[in-house]
Predict the structure.
Amino acid sequence: MIELVLRHREGGVALIAPSEGARLSYAELGTRVEAVAEWLSRTVGEHRLVMLAPGPDLGAVLLYLGCLRARLPLCLAEPQPEPLARLCQAYRPALVLAPDSLALPDGCAPAAAPVPRYAARLAGQAPAPVLHPDLALLLTTSGSTGSPKLVRLSARNLASNAAAISEFLSLGAEERAVQSLPMHYSYGLSVLNSHLVAGGSVVLTPHSFIRPEFWRDADEERATSFAGVPYMYETLRRLRFEPGRHPALRTFTQAGGALRPDLVSHFHDAASQAGARLVVMYGQTEATARISYVPPERLAEKLGTIGVAIPGGRLRLEPLEGSDGPAAQLVYEGENVMMGYAEGPADLALGDVQHGVLRTGDLGTVDADGYFAVVGRLKRFAKLFGRRVSLEDVERELETVFPVRAMAADAGDRLSLHIAADGAVADDALVAHLARFLGVPPSAIVLRRVSELPLTASGKKDYKAAEAAR
């Protein structure tokens, strides 16, 4: 992928960091990346693992691209002390890079970092893991904040997905994304990758999307696109966000989980009235980021679907053993499918065990026009009174009928619910409705009120945290 980025040697703007007073042209980006890559090669050597905890800044992008240029496999970690230390202990990187404000793991020798605002530490005496020659990037899986399980990606995976995203979003040199999602999250990284591959620009801001400073940076730099996960759009709706107040924005993308149909309709209408578009997408880290999308012109007609496969990819349904229902497992095939998982350093030596095929774990259907829909998870079921109950169906039903956010879990012979509500919705009303919907007695449902649902770093519902709090 790095070759696709560095081919843009003209004077077009690649990266803008208003808080740092920085604007890098593609020519300047190329020079800076080459310098970082040379430093990495001198400091680390060849094909050794680097750990990077990226901040929302220019230095993180330079270090990321520098590792790709030096062909040093890179693991992107959440920029928090505990997750970083846990991954370092599990995978024994040769070099650790993180913002200088972040405490780095002990047992490493300090070194001068090649970019400002970052600190570097060289590994101690622990044996280095053997790395497969195709390994380029390691990302944490969704919901695995407390686990060392990683997704193994190749340079081919990165290039394929970045090019496909660039194609279906029609990205070009005039496109300018505001970086609203963290780099260590696959969706956020794909925004960066796809725009740089297309020769567009990326605005780097340290501010949250709920802060006026974020929108000031986006407006002053005339950002053309914004990317968000469901909770971000839910928050923007509560804040009465109006796309028309940001005239340069012409594309809003959404992935990272299913957005409620009423919110899809709301933002589709609001964007259309402002002369912009909403692009709803579906993806997984295991497919480098994105798998499918709904063309904006068919979004109203295909509400609730995940659309069609991205360019170069293929979606199909695989019947479930012993099931005669309409739902089947959603299977994706494409060059962006990961090499496989890593659950420890020995797995970093493995080659491609997926062979371009990803069984998503999602249950899906497909309509006559070839548009797919996700209707549940293969493993997220409870059994009540001998009946198999989809926990996704439970959440979707409550969130559709009531102004609530819901998390459902199997509690043995009962169903456990975490409910966060914006308005005055009585517990009895929620339990009674769900009992009728499922055909079970109300005593089978245990409801707990919370101020906010626990979320992962990528904004998805954190079922592990909810389970621990029960």
